[in-house]
Amino acid sequence: AQPPSTWRALFAENRYDEAMRAAEAEGFDALVGRSSALDLLALADLSRFAGRTSRASEALLGIRNRFAGTSESARAAFHLGRLAFDQRGSHAEAARWFSTYLAEQPSGGLAQEALGRLIECREAMGATSEAREAARRYLAAYPSGPHAAHAESLLAGE
Question: Which element (helix H / strand E) includes 140?
Fold first, then answer.
């Protein structure tokens, strides 16, 4: 007899609902408390893909709590920002998480997107001067980036 598949194996097969059930059966909270940072990032992705955004947040916050100061913790901050913006429409919370990522990984692999998303957050909050400041920072660092045209149009309105 073959051993039952774990959540990781099911996730690798894109069987998200089954993988989520397996993670819950294993004890989701226990997984958050004992898994590596990389496994927690995968668990957060699985949770998002299975439509369980609150569980994704729990996994990401687990990284922030257990692995503070690591690149994985900074990535968790970025993904918490995306969840706040995309899933809950909480622009202020998203701005805090994107700012946290940028403070922790100013030259990180997600810095360009984090700064672009920060422009969107601040603009959505009606914080025009802060959005323009983020747009100036974006254009200084990424003049040809995907958010450059939006940043330029925001600054043209000054």
Answer: helix 128-141
